[in-house]
Each structure stands twice: as structure tokens, then as C-alpha cells.
Design goal:
about 35% strand; single chain; Umud Fragment, subunit A; mitochondrion; membrane
């Protein structure tokens, strides 16, 4: 194989990977206890597809990856509990004296919460999340192998 051909193939591979990561999906490593027991606190790897969020096909109950509204350098894994137009009851944090309150999810926003409420920083702290921050829907756990499966 000629050096020019190798370079062309390498550039094609890099471009193909970029297109797949940007428009199709990618793998993410889950870190932190906010989604326990659904995911382990470390070392779970999930496959995230981008079509559902790009075409607004996510619904309550889906697990999604989103850019953190508090730290744009951080991508978080949360469960989507409500979409725009939903009236959602926000339950107080465990061991809190707060009372439940109703929230109307505004247009272009969703409500995200972790499955482990006592160890999750989520919409209960920063409110509804702009839909544009959603990165994709978790569709498959690929690591560890003995927990492999679809969502």
C-alpha cells in the first residue's frame, strides 16, 4: 500500500468516526452514584444514540446523557421524568422538611433526576433543563459484560 493511500484511509476513518460520534451515537463511561442502582458508581459503559433527542422522541422514563447546566464541561447521566407541558410533582429530598411542589415544565425543557435521590444533583437543584443540552438516549449497557443489555 502506498503512503498516500494509507493517509487517505486514515483520514477517511477519522472523518467517519467524527460523523458517527456527532450524529449517530457514542459510548460514555458512567461515573458517580446518582444513577445507582441502575448503574454502578464507576466503570459502567453505555451506548448512547442521538436520533431520539435530535428528533424529539424521548419520553418520561428514558435514561439520557445531558450537558450539565451547572458545568458545561460535564456530561451527566439522568432519568428524564417530564417533558415540556407536563405538570410535575417535585418531591422533597430525603430527610428534608420541604414539601412537595408542582412545576409546569416550560416549552423546550425537560425534568431530569438521578435514580439515587440522596446522591444526585439534578433538576431538583437547577430546575428544568433546556432540551438542547440533551446529548442522547442510553440504549445499551456494554460494560461490565455480565450486566450487558438494552434499556
Amino acid at each position: 500500500m502506498l503512503p498516500g493511500e494509507t493517509l487517505r484511509q486514515l483520514l477517511g476513518l477519522i472523518c467517519g468516526l467524527h460523523v458517527c460520534n456527532t450524529y449517530v451515537g457514542q459510548a460514555y463511561r458512567i461515573f458517580g452514584p446518582s444513577m445507582f442502582p441502575t448503574f454502578n458508581a464507576t466503570d459502567d459503559i453505555v451506548l448512547v444514540e442521538r436520533f431520539s433527542t435530535r428528533f424529539q422522541k424521548v419520553k418520561a422514563g428514558d435514561i439520557v446523557m445531558a450537558v450539565s447546566p451547572e458545568d458545561p464541561a460535564l456530561v451527566v447521566c439522568k432519568r428524564l421524568l417530564a417533558v415540556e407541558g407536563d405538570n410535575f410533582t417535585v418531591l422533597p429530598e430525603p430527610l428534608s422538611e420541604d414539601v412537595a411542589k408542582q412545576v409546569l415544565i416550560p416549552k423546550g425543557h425537560v425534568w431530569l433526576q438521578g435514580d439515587n435521590p440522596s446522591n444526585s444533583r439534578d433538576s431538583r437543584h437547577y430546575g428544568p433543563v433546556p432540551y438542547a443540552l440533551l446529548q442522547g438516549k442510553v440504549c445499551l449497557r456494554i460494560w461490565p459484560p455480565f450486566y450487558w443489555g438494552k434499556f
